[in-house]
Amino acid sequence: MATMAYGSEETREALLARLRRIEGQVRGVARMVEEEQYCVDILTQITAATRALDKVGVQLLSNHIRGCVRDAMTTPSGDEKVEELVDVMERFLKT
């Protein structure tokens, strides 16, 4: 399995901090369901968590393009990496 170049340890830590916040949001949504809170309020929190997760995905995709894909373009595996990028973008953008 290939490794991801995050750009820096600081970037990696920022991504992990975002993911921890999202984890807390999801636990909060579960608690809201357990407490039978108002559906619209729960849906609002789900939307917020989904958008936050999307932002993490966009950041990872951006890092991948700027690092892995750019570097691969100077090698014989460049076309392969572009195909991989197209595939991952199709999966990421599916609704």
Largest sheet: none
The outline comes out as elongated
Mean pLDDT equals 90
**How much beta, percentage-wise?**
under 5%
How would you sum up this structure, described in words?
The chain has 95 residues and is an all-alpha fold. The protein has a single domain (9-93), classed as Metal-sensitive repressor, helix protomer (Methane Monooxygenase Hydroxylase, Chain G, domain 1), CATH 1.20.58. Helix content is 80%, strand content 0%. The protein has three helices and no strands. The protein has helices at residues 9-34, 39-72, 78-93. Helix 1 packs antiparallel against helix 2 and helix 2 (39-72) packs antiparallel against helix 3 (78-93). The longest helix is centred in the middle third of the chain and has 34 residues, at 39-72. It starts with 8 loop residues before the first helix and ends with a helix.
Explain briefly what this protein structure is.
The protein is an all-alpha fold and 95 residues long. The chain is 80% helix and 0% strand.
Supply database-style keywords:
95 residues; mainly alpha; Methane Monooxygenase Hydroxylase, Chain G, domain 1; 3 helices; 0% strand
